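Supplementary Methods S3. Input chains for the assembly prediction are listed below.
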Amino acid sequence: MSAVVARHVSVDIGDAQLVRDVSLELAAGQWHTIVGPNGAGKTTLVETIAGVRQPTRGAVEVSGTSIHEASERLRAQRVAFVPQHPIVPAGMKVRDYVGLGRTAYRSLLRGPSTRDHEIVSEVLNRLDIERFADRDVATLSGGERQRMVLARALAQHTMVVVLDEPITGLDIRHQVDLLEVLRREVEECGLNVIATLHDLTLAAQFADRLVLLADGQVRAEGTPHDVLRTVELADSYGVALQVVNVGGSDVVVPVTAIQQGNVPTFS
Amino acid sequence: MVTALGFCALFGAMVVGLGVGPLSMPWGHIIGDVASHLGLGHSTLDSLQSTVLWQLRAPRLVLGLLAGAMLAVAGGTYQGVFRNPLADPYLLGVAAGAGLGATVAIVQIGDGLSTPAWTPWLAFAGALIAVSLTWAVGGRGTSASLVLAGVAISSLLTSAQTFVQQSSHSSIARVYIWLLGSLGGASWHSVWMTLPYVIVCIIICVAAAGALDVMSVGDVESRSLGLPVERVRLVVVAAASLGTAAVVSSVGLIGFVGIIVPHFVRLLVGSSYRHILPLSALIGATFLVLTDTVARTVVSPSELPLGVITALIGAPMFVLLLRARRESLT
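Predicted structure tokens for the full assembly:
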């Protein structure tokens, strides 16, 4: 059973082809991370999977629903999206922000229901952010803010959550914290996570499968162990890479000019 | 608590609006006269006082309440839908369109001595045409493209209005009086002409307050949360613009209410439009009735243009609000 099926998806903007004929079947209950160099089309692809961007050609099904033909409401009940730079409106309380995740389940004319409040409280507890639920969102640190945005996505009660670079701007501790929270959601709740990440080591540690994207096309797809050892990986990034096993985990190390004895000089 | 205080302020403003003026009327007699109209007791006002109260001050008060409430709600709504704290009810060309319509009426139809009866209708039509043009140009894009279209259409119509205005020197003063806004021409007729639009449009805007809260995270995220952004924007902008057009056609261009009142309310009740919009209606109505009382009494028997008073009071208050807001964030 596939959680997400993308069939021959292409996205053009003007003359530029950002995503080219991408077909993917992402199995249910797993974490898929899309990796690739800058400009590979990662953000465009996940936005298209999340339904916030219309493909030029092709189609995407999420949990059996053709996501670009569904209403906004149905789409939001199928897939939650966390953008790379979420807009966090100053003055809003954390609890109210997380409550926005219930939009697809309530009438616009009515306020949040008791059930909405229960779900928001439960998600706040699960992500351990209940203690600052009544704070202004503008007062949060980067790590707290990302947890809050993730909480909003989880409040949508979808089986698929799409995240675009969720750990950008976080220190290593908060990066690991956030990825561990997501991993727990996959393990305990059967959540399907589709994320883009730049850090190949973290991508390999947390994802079940990697999709390597370059020039808008899928270059490799498989387990982290397999994808990290493909020739296409180094080709795509245009840099020599070495994969080292440390304590059972793959660590990706760029082989720099300095390591090769070619110390660059600046004149 | 804040809402209760808002109602108290509104009641106080109504009492002041009815009681203050060149013709003295004791508060007790006014309340007695109002009660007598409800079948409770007998009026102690003489016929002149009663005529002034019911034919001059009361329609002026009611029209002020309607205009203040609508402008404040429309301003708050625009600020929400465009995520722009500087948005006011005239953002999409209502003012420029109404100004052109009114100027055409005064210059082309009028005799140069008085404002013709057609003026509100042409102002109303001008406002609606302006917003429709803005929507036709920028409505299919993002919120930003709609705002830019509003700027372009406003500039175009303002140029046309200036051109028409310059063609008749005898009417310039009358055009300016209309443009600066006044409740001096209020009558029960103008109240009944404005009331249905204002009531319906305020209800729609307040009903959409929850959607405006969602839209505070931007169009893309709102859509991903399940909000039909384009439809909500169309309905809300249409309601705010229609209500504003109805008000402007009756009272002219009154600035600052639509900007200052929602910001003031935001300081009191926070950022949720569920609280901002209803309270903006209360405070906007109160603010306009009080400023109108100032406008018609400080140089009595003449009147100052209402737009001048709202700007004179509004601008310093706006500066104080900005300072208070900045201090609350530091």
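DSSP finds 14 helices and no strands in chain B. The two ends of chain B are 26 Å apart (CA to CA).
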